[in-house]
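Hi, here's the filled form for the chain we discussed.

Project: internal
Contact: R.S.
Residues: 146
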Amino acid sequence: MPRIVSCRAAPIVLLIFFLLTGCSTPVPTWRAKSAALVDDLVRQDALALFPQEYLNLLETFEHGEAVLHVQGDQQAADVFYLLALQKGSLLKDDLVRYRQRKEQKERERIAAEAARVEEERLMRDAAVAEARLREQEHRKATQEAQ
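And the returned structure, exactly as it came back:
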């Protein structure tokens, strides 16, 4: 016949369970997010646009990896992952601002080109109108002379 845990033993078993789960080391909570951000920044070409900042971020992330895998200290590694996440967030903001500035400069370049083309068109139209006016004046002068 199986033994059923008595009512007095149940709280002790629960206490031991909670102590064991409370004493276990936590999984690094920032590792997955910082790793995903590092990968996302690679896809956004951060290394080419901001090489020093990206390499600094990568060094921080890799330091966290070394602390986790070599030293086995998950809490200390989590500090590096969080720092890498913060650096990555700042770098992502820099990339957004860089692209916005680049798009703004392109819009300004297109507007300036359109203004130049329009000015050239107006100058051509004015030159044509002036040539017509001279031709009309010349005709009028030749008709009056006859």
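Let me know if anything looks off before we file it.
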